[in-house]
UniProtKB/TrEMBL annotation:
GO terms of molecular function: amino acid transmembrane transporter activity
Official protein name in the record: LysE family transporter
Subcellular location(s) per record: Cell membrane
Taxonomy of the source species: Bacteria, Pseudomonadati, Pseudomonadota, Alphaproteobacteria, Hyphomicrobiales
Keyword Protein biosynthesis: no
């Protein structure tokens, strides 16, 4: 048990940097929070965490190694992810000013469905082949081959839980009255900035090469 705890601590020491490092997932949650609200951002956070378990599971099963060594599979996932992020970027650029005050026009703003909010987070992470290389590398370097699959899966659950907790925290922070008011004033430019961020990450993903 002590060896497993040591492995988990080592994994989390590395993974903690990946959690707080700004990326497409962070941009997605922040925009969901500011444009659609706390509920949608939290659902997107759970989508990202669930997608992380998707990556961990096939890494444990050995499929991650196959994907990382197959140029065709890697390219399919890479280009699907790049197109998705660029599409999200274009939609954000076209969004213009976002009115967060439902009283202004006398109608409640259209709410994003739970499935769509969850799916945005899941797809943004699932269609990114970079986690394949990340989890393969850290599991190979920090987890013994003799560690049971169930224990490795437990590591993944802990990592996914921490990731969800981080993004839920981001969701709460970005939906405070002060942040909402600031976004309402600058929503046009924030939408443009987030759109360019999504497109930039999409182009960066398109340039990623399998190792």
């Amino acid at each position: 048990m002590h060896a497993y705890l040591l492995e988990l601590a080592s994994l989390m020491a590395v993974f903690s940097f990946a959690i707080v490092s700004p990326g497409a997932d962070t941009a997605m949650v922040m925009r969901q929070a500011m444009v659609h609200g706390r509920r949608e951002a939290i659902l997107t956070s759970f989508g990202i965490g669930t997608s992380l378990m998707f990556h961990v599971t096939y890494t444990i099963l050995g499929l991650g190694l196959i994907i990382s060594k197959s140029l065709l599979l890697f390219s399919i996932i890479k280009w699907a992810g790049a197109v998705y992020l660029i599409y999200m970027g274009v939609m954000a650029l076209r969004a213009g000013k976002t009115d967060l005050d439902p009283v202004a026009d006398g109608a409640e703003p259209a709410r994003q469905s739970a499935l769509r909010a969850f799916g945005l987070g899941f797809l943004a992470n699932a269609l990114n082949p970079k986690p394949v290389l990340f989890f393969l590398s850290i599991f190979s370097a920090l987890v013994a081959a003799s560690t049971p699959g169930t224990v490795k899966f437990g590591y993944g659950l802990v990592m996914a839980t921490c990731l969800i907790a981080w993004f839920v925290g981001v969701s709460f922070f970005m939906t405070t009255p002060r942040m909402r008011a600031a976004f309402s004033r600058a929503s046009k430019w924030i939408n443009r900035a987030s759109g360019m961020v999504f497109i930039a990450f999409g182009l960066k993903l398109a340039a990623t090469k399998a190792s």
